Amino acid sequence: MSGERGFTLLEVLVALGILVFAITTLMQSMGTAASNTHMLDERTRAYMLASNKLVELQVYQQWPETGTQDERVERDDREWLIRTRISGGPYPDTRRVDVEVGPDRAPGQERQVLYVLTSLLGKPAAEVVEVEAEGDTP
Q1: What is the CATH number of the domain that holds 49?
Q2: What's the CA gap between 27 and 32, in Å, rounded?
């Protein structure tokens, strides 16, 4: 019996401590990865909503008035707030468009913006031609 050798209690406890530390670190990493994946998914949805709003402004070819407009939409079983700010652009016949998207919050809660998309819109060609034609008339 004296020829058999095994691990001492101290060696087993040290090995167990290392294993617990490794598992704890792995669980924290997995939690962080899941949180980052969720946030990336949210930002991707916000990007798609902002992009859709900008395309909508480009496709309808209407000269937007300056100001701020809030729109609430439901996508993927979630309420979103799309805030569109239109201001004068840096060049003649342009408008600056800022689209901010975030989850819709209850009154009193701080608004969270997940994505901001900024672009310029040019005055639609039909309106430019109409204005020039009106200016040529005596």
Answers
A1: 3.30.1300.30
A2: 9
E strand or H helix at 118, and its extent? strand 115-122
Q: Which residue segment(s) compose the domain that 47 sits in?
A: 9-136
Mean pLDDT, rounded, for 3-27: 91
- The rounded mean pLDDT for the chain is 88
Quick: pLDDT tens for 66-86. 999 999 999 888 899 999 999
**Residue at 24 is within a domain:** yes
119 forms beta bridges with 97
Domain-embedded: residue 77: yes
Position 124 in a domain: yes
Instruction: State how far the alpha carbon of 42 is from the alpha carbons of 22, 78, 108, 123, in Å.
Output: 30, 10, 22, 33
> Rounded CA gap, 66 and 93, in Å?
13
